[in-house]
Hints:
This protein is of the alpha/beta class. It has helices at residues 8-20, 27-33, 82-98, 119-133, 152-166, 190-206, 222-233, 256-266, 309-313, 352-360, 368-371, 374-388, 394-419, 423-441, 445-448, and strands spanning 38-47, 53-64, 70-77, 104-111, 142-146, 214-218, 237-243, 246-249, 305-307, 319-322, 341-343, 364-366. The structure holds nicotinamide-adenine-dinucleotide (NAD). Nicotinamide-adenine-dinucleotide (NAD) binds at residues 146-149, 191, 218-224, 242-244, 309, 323-325, 345-347, 372, 375.
Amino acid sequence: MTAGQNDTFSDAIRRLDRAAEFAEIDAEALEKLRNPKSILQVSIPLRMDDGSLRVFQGYRVRYNDTRGPTKGGIRFHPGVCLSEVKALAFWMTCKCAVVSIPFGGGKGGIIVDPKQLSRTELERLSRGFIAQVADFIGPETDIPAPDVYTNAMIMGWMMDEYSKIRRQRTPAVITGKPIPLGGSLGRDDATGRGAYYCIKELEKLKDWQPSDTRVAVQGFGNAGQHVSRLLHADGYRVVAISDSRGGVYHPDGLDIPCLIETKNRTRRIDAVYCEGSVCDCPVCGSEGCQCEDCHCSDGHEAKSEKISNAALLELDVDILIPAALENQITANNANQIKAPVIVEVANGPTTSDADEILAERNTLVVPDILANAGGVTVSYFEWVQNRAGYSWTEKEVQSRLRTIMTEEFHSIYDLMTAKGIEMRTAAYAHALNRISAAVEALGTNKYFSNGLAST
Ligand code: NAD
């Protein structure tokens, strides 16, 4: 069965069951992990700028808190549904265990197209959501963060609203905040940077030369931009990138800083094109370019071409980085994926049936719960700094992040090699061992059915 929008959670549980075969997981811990701890559904009435009222639906799921308070982002997207939020919260539980930070997993979302709202409406919606979930979240219980179409400013509004409700400044209730409101240095690029650190380890294992290594990145938001920027700065050839409206491709490599500048100014990648025809702008500075949007100039001359999101996934590249949404690589296109290595920066971009096809084709998939764990790791650093009332330098944040990503990458890679399993299954098994140890520390059937307490 192919995972559709409403099937994301069942797909996640299929993976859990597969990984359990390779983990030392207690049966009771496994049973607990098949079900979310608690789910809150809320309706958020929003007074629109024109005076009318609209009601939006939102969710917050606390999946499992055995290893610590639940942790996970809040997504604003029209495709949000409960199955997706539960799956994302489950993945967060595993991800926090993969990087061994003392958190469980949670997630939230609002069914909304934020691009249709004004800034004031967006602020009221963000504050309205917090007003509804204030009793469900907290620095010791559940700590949200940004996700798709939410950013630092939205986290700032949410923290401010929570603090007003509690009548005390509470920065540790949410991470990914603006730096002046208690955000951590290095949080902004942490997800992309964590994936970059994984790629640097693969580079050593596979003996890659960056200038010969072609990369395609689907999704050019926070995570996609930063991983592209770091790889480009390191000499990698980022040949294709895309956003929700389509992408650009050039076999010699794109000018990533220019594309980031253009995307952030115009909010769209295809704005780098001249009206009606493909122009030279993504590798801008070339002679004859009339595009008003093009202000960058680094002397590239070759032309780039437009590419669809579907075609980007099937490009002949060395590394494919899905960094947009889930369910992009499915049974329908897995056979067409040419990249021998996929680094999953997005959450859940590959369905479980696509996994089987990719495994048969010997494609190495660095799974989301490892590849994008840099974000939650630095969120944890932010929470620690907020609670300590002390801030770390960016260098310190990056160095601690690199140590964790590198260690966990190798533990999982070694487990994969030792057991002859896919890297995703190894990552889940690694996480399940840690979650199970926490469940067992509270006692399981093995302990309680063993008669009288001896200690
Ligand atoms: P974002 O909102 O900053 O960017 C999302 C990007 O995806 C945008 O460029 C958007 O245009 C693009 N996009 C949307 N639909 C698309 C489609 N159908 N095809 C191609 N591109 C599409 O979000 P983000 O924070 O960068 O998150 C991206 C992914 O990374 C998500 O799966 C998210 O859960 C995951 N992630 C993000 C973080 C983080 O810290 N930001 C951490 C872990 C995982």
